[in-house]
Amino acid sequence: MKIVEKEENNTVSKEKQSSDIIKNACESELNKVNEVKTNINDKVNESKKDINDQENEEKTEINIKENALIKNEKSKTTVRKILNKSIQIFLTSRLFVVVIGLLLVLKTVFLYKTAIFVNKPIEKEYIEMIIGFVFIFLTLPMLLKGKIRIWIALIIDLLTSVLLFINELYYSYSSNLVSVSQISNLQYGKEISAALPNLLHVWQILYFVDIIILLVFYIINRKKVLKISKWFYIPGIIYAIVAMIFAVQINKNWIMKAEEFQYNKLQQIQTSSIFGYHYLDLKNNFNMKKNVKYKTKTEMLQAYNELKTQYDEKYNLVYDFKDIAKDKNVIVVQLESVQKFVVNRKINGKEITPNLNKFLNENIEFTNMHNQSYTTTADSEHTAMNSLYPLENGMSFAQYSSNDYNDIFHNFKKDDYITTYIHGNVGSFWNREAVYSKLPIDHLYFDNIFDENTERINEYIADEHVYRKMVEEMKNYDGKFFLNIVAASSHTAFDLPGIENKDQKVNIDVGDEYRGIYFGNYLEAVNYADYAFGIFIDELKKAGLYDDTVILVYGDHAGLQMYNYEMMDFIREVNPSLNDIQTQINYTNVACGIKIPGVEPMKINKPTSRLDVKPTLMEICGIEDEFSLGTSMFADKDFVCINNGKIITDKYFYDGKWYLIASGEEVNLDNISEEEKEKLDFYSDCLQKELDISLSVNLLNLLKK
Prior knowledge:
By secondary structure, the chain is of the alpha/beta class. 54% of the residues lie in helices and 9% in strands. Strand 17 (647-649) and strand 18 form a beta hairpin. Helix 2 packs across helix 3 (124-137). It starts with a helix and ends in a 5-residue tail after the last helix.
């Protein structure tokens, strides 16, 4: 029994142990499950926390961005308000006018540097003068208010900019300043417009770009201009008072000084600014006839005779050719735009002017011949014909065609010469028909004597046809004759429009360097002019008219701008030390030579001028010359004058100051001898006398018969 109970107890004990093991296993598994569950919950909680943290961060970031946007919008609003306020202040206050004033000063300095004073520094005094005039210009808008002030300021800006732009174009075209007197020449604007493509440059938009910007700016913001019911006039009145004081000082310190340089425009600019020059130009043109020095013929002739007596006493004939060509035929050929620097020069191995070179080498060459002005062919004709200085750009022909002069045609006619004049353009061009039809000219020819199909270059009858026509005419003359030919084919813009068989008539190759540009075109045009001149000489010889005829040939004026860079480089090939003074002298130096039957070839290097043409021809032909400001080209007079107040001697150049031609340096008058000073003073006195006499004769018609 005990054994059975013991076994039962063992069995129960084993079952209990098994149950405990199972229980423990279950609890262990349950614990594991709980641990997994806990881990999962922890991870879930961590994930939730991460999500919450991320959401919070995103919310924070969004809030920051929203706050930043709000702040930015507020900032933009503030900037916008400040900008609008600034625009209002700029447009409503006088600051707008001040800005325009600064721009006008900059544009004037720009004109000085790009055109007028290319090779000279802009002096501090020049800028002070500009500021002074601009200050005065802006007086009216400074007194006004609102939109009317803006418009007046813009109009002043526009008008001043147009004036500066026109001056740049004209100065680039003729190395001269535009004058109000040239309004009458607008009918001949086609001549200048032909050169416009070579005068216009991209940088010239700077004269107007500010006006466009300011105008667009004003139109966009015009509603922001404040309406001011009560205007504060005191600053404007103060400005006007200061401007009046400025005006008095400008007149005293600048204008009166500039008036001393009556004929020298560049000196007027240097002493009173471009605006001072234009003020004097207006003033002088309104009082032109009142301002001449000699009001009567008697006064003028007294001054003239005194001057000629001085010349006769001081200068002598180096070559006495008086009467050497008595009763000889005389031909004067004026070549269009043929400057001296092309003579005896080659381009790519070929002479530019082979026929002219031959003529000059076989006869008398004047290497230092100068035209009397910076302007037109008509001015050259006026000077050669009358031995007087021309007026402002073409005015002598355009406005004073009815004047009487002691002209070359009258002088030859009184000695029984057959007189002829020809120009291959219409008679109305530069009023030539009106000028020459009142003179004793037996045969007055223009383009209307040619067939309508005749070759034209630049709309003028081609030179070769003019020359051939004149040789045919001369064959039929029964007696001695004087012929004046004005050639025209080598006229700006030098591209020879209308020329036929160009490759047979232009025999130089300007090369890739110059082909198609202004300088290259110029060389080709001069080469054609030379070709035509060669035909003329050949035809004269064939007709038996060459040997016993006086032939004077000269270029009428410069063809290229004074500072044409290609030309300057071309000159430096033979003159590496070319300086600014020599460049200015080159501008007036034209080709010139004369054939006198029986006279051996020679070169005369002293200065001569267009004024000397008439007295020289009268001298060699034995004809009395009653009135000529020029002298014989064969005398030893050693200086010439230009109508812009400049003087050229064999050693010096005068342009308000004296310069040495060789070095270009200003002459220190303290370092030269008294004798040399007296000589320079004599030149200056003669310049003033010649110009005063000439101006009086031209304006008051003092040689009226």
